[in-house]
Write a structure and sequence with these properties.
CATH topology of the largest domain: Adenine-n6-DNA-methyltransferase TaqI, Chain A, domain 2
Oligomer: single chain
Distance between the termini: 9 Å
Radius of gyration: 27 Å
Number of helices: 12
Structural class: alpha+beta
Largest sheet: 5 strands, mixed
Strand order of the largest sheet: 2-11-7-9-5
Length: about 425
């Protein structure tokens, strides 16, 4: 009946349906690469398709986004005024290796009287503002129905692309402009909430990073229970802190579609192992017979090949084994959790990356890593540091959970509030 599942109660009429080509006209974009852009100076800014994929908000406000300038030595004299972006314009990324991202879009919401062009691998679509209110198209093109239509029109195998010609035939459902305004207001409030939470999350992450640098350089110290200073940290060779090193014989074991998780590089890199990223598993027989040593709570996982020097703390709650590009470190007297924080502190991370070898497939030899020296405090101070940083991690995780919940809620609304 062309009526959305969820809508504001004052609106009862059916939504209209027209082809995109009847609502939008397509303008000419440029093909300037990143080499033709800079973030320091210029008179005209430029939207690069990569930024649509990775960082720009649905409703693009130029005062809130970091946008590169076109280099001053690049001639833009031939670009007509009509091809400069206007508020209400939709900019789509016309290429992606991922089906979920092909045709991803933003809508120009606030230009602040600045000059802006749509650049490489983008499509610039200008709406008939008698039919579409500014902001509505931005959210409409995020809805499941429109995204699915765009994906069906995409062409290619390794790299998917969408053209203006194929977009013109996509049908769009839309209500009166009064209802459009209400929808834009609703989602704008949700987006503001998400951005506020992300800002809070980022600030806490930056605070944690700064505190870790001070703690591990001993510029910031804890006192013991009597208020006295702890002993000076002892410089120790990393290999001398280890009880054992866990690996899996350097070969990939036979894998299954379910069973015991086989942890690869994509599943580590944060404090907790990301089991949602696991795609390979081993059965119980392989687990019992293939691996020489098994993980236990307190071990630190470390990536040695590819994206090297990533770490996670293994808490032992889930049985797991590691792939050949990961090793596990078990420590003699040091707390595994403290050593996880030590290895992820920026200066120590850079020290490990400095021994990385190879270009196409970077790697870190464990034999070289064990020869590095790190300053390590007493076990009591290790506990203090670990507890403090863990409390920060819990706060960061709470905010991350809030962001996820709001984004899931928004996704549900996008599905229900558009035909």
């Amino acid at each position: 009946m062309n009526i959305p599942q969820l809508r504001f109660p004052e609106f009862k009429d059916k939504w209209n349906e027209e082809k995109m080509g009847e609502i939008y006209s397509f303008k000419i974009t440029n093909s300037f690469s990143r080499d033709n852009l800079n973030y320091e100076e210029g008179t005209v800014k430029n939207i690069h398709y990569g930024d649509i994929h990775t960082k720009f908000q649905t409703l693009f406000d130029i005062t809130k986004e970091t946008v590169p300038f076109i280099n001053s030595d690049i001639s833009i004299d031939r670009i007509s005024e009509d091809n400069y972006c206007k508020e209400g314009d939709l900019i789509l990324a016309d290429a992606s290796e991922d089906l979920n991202d092909v045709g991803k879009s933003i809508e120009i919401f606030n230009l602040n009287n600045e000059k802006l062009l749509a650049g490489l691998h983008t499509i610039l679509a200008r709406p008939n503002l008698e039919k579409f209110d500014v902001g509505f198209g931005g959210y409409l093109f995020k809805s499941n129905k429109v995204r699915t239509k765009i994906q069906k029109e995409a062409q290619g195998s390794k790299v998917l692309s969408i053209s203006a010609t194929r977009l013109t035939n996509i049908s769009l459902d839309f209500p009166s402009k009064d209802e459009q305004k209400k929808i834009v207001e609703c989602f704008s409030v949700i987006d503001e909430k998400i951005q506020a939470l992300k800002k809070k999350h980022n600030l806490l992450e930056q605070y944690k990073k700064g505190v870790m640098q001070k703690l591990f350089s001993q510029k910031l110290r804890f006192n013991d229970e009597n208020g006295n200073e702890f002993p000076e940290w002892e410089e120790r060779k990393f290999g001398d802190t280890l009880e054992i090193i866990i690996d899996n014989r350097g070969k990939t074991p036979p894998v299954e579609k379910k069973g015991i998780p086989l942890l690869e590089v994509n599943s580590i890199g944060s404090k907790e192992v990301n089991y949602n990223a696991v795609s390979k598993f081993v059965n119980q027989d392989t687990f019992d017979n293939w691996f020489r040593k098994y993980l236990k709570s307190g071990d630190v996982l470390f990536s040695t090949v590819g994206n090297t020097a990533l770490c996670s703390y293994y808490d032992g709650k889930n049985k797991a084994v590691i792939a050949q590009n990961i090793v596990g470190f078990r420590f003699t007297n040091e707390l595994g959790l403290f050593m996880y924080y030590l290895l992820t502190e920026e200066n120590n991370y850079n020290k490990m990356k400095a021994i990385e070898m190879g270009a196409v497939q970077p790697s870190i030899k464990v034999s070289q890593l064990t020869e590095l020296f790190f300053k390590i405090p007493t076990e009591t101070e290790q506990i203090k540091i670990s507890e403090f940083l863990s409390s920060l991690d819990k706060k960061i995780e709470v905010i991350k959970d809030e962001i996820d919940k709001v984004e899931i809620w928004k996704k549900g609304l996008l599905q229900k509030m558009f035909c």
